[in-house]
C-alpha cells in the first residue's frame, strides 16, 4: 500500500510496508519546518536552515508517503515494488528499459503496456446502469449491470473485464447471450453479432463477495466490508473484481447507480442523489454521474451516512457524506471546501464537474482517493487534529477533479497527468495557507528525485505507478516547466488542458504538444530532459523573463 492514506496522496510514494501513512507527510512537514516560512504558520518553527542545501533529504528513499495502513482484509503484497533497492524489486518493474511502452498484443485488452488484459477491444461503453443489493450483515453483493455500448467494429464475440463476479445470465438487447467466465474476462457471444456503431444494451446479472485486497500496484483494491457498511477502491484495476465492466481509463461513460441497502442504512455513489425509495428489500438509493468517468473513479459506499448538501462558488452543488456520529467533527472540513475551490479555479479554470463533495468513510486511515465529483477520505485521518495532513489530503484530492477526473489518462503509464498535477496543486495550497513555501517543497523534491529517482516520471513501471517520481518527482517537472515558460503560459496551459479535454482520456504526448503550442516554443528538449529522463538536471531552470 501504500498509498493509501495519504496515500493517495501521499502516496506518493509509496512503498508498501504498510506503515502508518505519515511518512510522506512527515517529510514534507520537515521541509516546512526548515523553510524560512511565514512565522504565523502554526506548525512551522523558526527557520533553522535553508531547505535544499543544508538539509539534505533523508537518506531513506522517499517511498514514502504518508502511507496508509491497509484496509481490513488486505493482504500485504509479497514484494515491495516501490522499494528503490533494485535487489528487492522485480526487474520488470524497476528497470525503465522494461517499462518503455511496448506494444502488447492482447486479444482481450486494449493494449495498455502495463495492463495488457484491461479494457476490451471493439466496444465503447457509453453508460453503466448499476443495480446492486448489499446487506453488510451478509457477505454477498447481488447485482445486475446494464452497459449501453457502441461496437466500434463488427464482432461475433466480445469481452468484459470481470475477475470476481459469478455471472448468472447475460442478455444483449433483451436476447439471451452465451457467455463464458474466464480468469479475468467475461466472454460474450450475442445471439446476433454486433454491428459497428449500433448501440446495444448488455445486461449482466451476477453475484460477488466482498474481497478487497491489494492490487499489483500495491494499493488496496476491490470491495471492502466495514463494521457497518462498505466502500470500494478501484484504482487501477479493482472495479473488475466486483463489476463486469470495461475496466480501463481510456473508456469513459456516464453512470446511474441503484443501490439497495437495509432500511436505515445509506448508499452513496458518485454524482447527484436522484431518489431514495423504500421497497420490500430495503431502500433503493439512486445516484447519477453525468460527466463521463472511468471505472476506477467509481465511489460506492454503504453505511450510516448523512448526506450534507450545500452550495459552493458560483452556485456549484456540494454533496458530501459523513458518518452520522461524525457530523459535528467533520463540519470544519465541509466548510473548507469553498475556499479551496475558489483558490484552484483561479489557476486551473472553472471547477470542471457537475458537483463536488467529500466522503469520510470508516476505512482504515491512510486512504484518500479522487473518486469522481466526491473525494474519498478516511475519517480516522480527520479526527486527529493534524492540520497538515488534513490540508494536504483535501487539496490533493480536490486538485484531481481537474487533473485525473475531468481529463483522465489514456493509459496507466500516463498517470503523472493525474498525480504530478494533484501534487503540484497540493504544493500551491500548502503555500497559500502558509504551511510550506512552494519553492521549499520543490527544492526538496528535486534533491530527493536526484538521489532516489530511478524511473522517468513519464514511464513508471507497474510498481511505480504511485511512486515518488510520479508524485513529488513529477511535481518537480511541472515546477521546472513553470519556471521555463513563465506563470502566465503555465497556468493558461493547465486551464486549457482541462477545458479542451474535459470528459476525455489523454496521453502524455497530448500534454507535451499542447505545452509547446501554448508556450509558443518547441519544448521537446525540455520534456526530454525533465519528463522522459531518468536523471534530471541538478538545478531548476532560471525563471523565464517577465
Ligand atoms: N489516486 C490516489 C491519490 O490521490 C492514490 C491511489 C491510487 C489510491 N490507488 C489507490 C488510494 C487505491 C487508495 C486506494 O493519490
Ligand atoms: Zn493523487
Topology, element by element:
Layout: H1 5-10, H2 23-34, H3 51-54, H4 91-94, H5 96-99, E1 123-134, E2 141-151, E3 158-161, E4 166-172, E5 175-176, E6 178-181, E7 185-189, E8 200-208, E9 213-214, E10 220-225, E11 230-233, E12 253-261, E13 266-269, E14 272-279, E15 282-293, E16 300-303, E17 305-311, E18 317-323, H6 327-348, E19 358-361, E20 368-369, E21 375-378, H7 387-402, E22 407-409, H8 416-432, H9 438-452, H10 472-501, E23 504-506, H11 508-519, H12 524-530
Parallel strand pairs: 1-12, 18-19, 19-21, 22-23
Antiparallel strand pairs: 1-2, 2-8, 3-7, 4-5, 4-8, 6-7, 9-10, 10-11, 11-16, 12-15, 13-16, 14-15, 17-18, 20-21
Helix pairs in contact: 6-7, 7-8, 8-10, 9-10, 10-11
Quick recap:
The protein has 546 residues and is of the alpha+beta class. It contains twelve helices and 23 strands. An eight-stranded mixed sheet has the order 5-4-8-2-1-12-15-14, with no helix packed on it.
Structure notes:
The chain is of the alpha+beta class and 546 residues long. The chain folds into 2 domains: 3-101 and 402-530, Neutral Protease, domain 2; 123-215 and 229-303, Immunoglobulin-like (Sandwich), CATH 2.60.40.1730. Helices cover 27% and strands 24% of the residues. It is built from 12 helices and 23 strands. The protein has helices spanning 5-10, 23-34, 51-54, 91-94, 96-99, 327-348, 387-402, 416-432, 438-452, 472-501, 508-519, 524-530; strands at 123-134, 141-151, 158-161, 166-172, 175-176, 178-181, 185-189, 200-208, 213-214, 220-225, 230-233, 253-261, 266-269, 272-279, 282-293, 300-303, 305-311, 317-323, 358-361, 368-369, 375-378, 407-409, 504-506. The strands form 5 sheets. The protein has an 8-stranded mixed β-sheet with strand order 5-4-8-2-1-12-15-14, with no helix packed on it. Helix 8 (416-432) packs across helix 10. It is globular, with a radius of gyration of 22 Å. The protein starts with a helix and ends in a 16-residue tail after the last helix. Mean pLDDT is 86; it is low at 1-22 and 36-105. Residues 8-9, 370, 396, 400, 419, 422 line the site of zinc ion.
